[in-house]
Design a protein that fits this description.
single chain, alpha+beta, HIT family, subunit A, 5-stranded antiparallel β-sheet, binds guanosine-5'-monophosphate, binds zinc ion
């Protein structure tokens, strides 16, 4: 898609530090890492977000993401696989991507200022 930053990376118009590539997916280092290992796994076709992806495409993501974890050496130490969706999800780039984050003990705490107990 024209003007999409991740489509430009797929097309080779913007450089990226690529980790793994397959027919359907591309994995590369995040430009602004939030942990020692921070890889972005994107679809090569322009899919806006998780709401738009097919189960068939997601099936292919399984072994691809597992292989990325192995290449980065975090498959045993542990990692997190996250996709942000839309405004509340904090998605900044509207091209489907999964963050594979690890290489250190990750924090896990309240993700919002809204107290979840108030919505019970
Ligand atoms: P989101 O907030 O959409 O889930 O995550 C977008 C991610 O893409 C961010 O972590 C940001 O650092 C990363 N990013 C944005 N532009 C580029 C780029 O041009 N190259 C790379 N490698 N990462 C990018
Ligand atoms: Zn795109």
């Amino acid at each position: 898609m024209k003007d999409c930053i991740f489509c430009k990376i797929v097309a080779g118009k913007i450089p990226a530090n690529i980790v793994l590539e397959s027919r359907d997916f591309l994995a590369f280092h995040d430009i602004n890492p939030i942990a020692p290992v921070h890889i972005l796994i994107i679809t090569k076709t322009h899919i806006r977000d998780f709401n738009e992806v097919s189960p068939e495409m997601m099936a292919g993501l399984t072994s691809f993401a597992q292989n990325v974890a192995k290449i980065l050496g975090v498959e045993n130490s542990g990692y997190r696989l996250i996709t942000n969706v839309g405004d509340n999800g904090g998605q900044e780039v509207p091209h489907l991507h999964f963050h594979l984050i690890g290489g250190a003990k990750l924090k896990w705490h309240h993700l919002t200022d809204t107290n979840p107990r108030n919505s019970l």
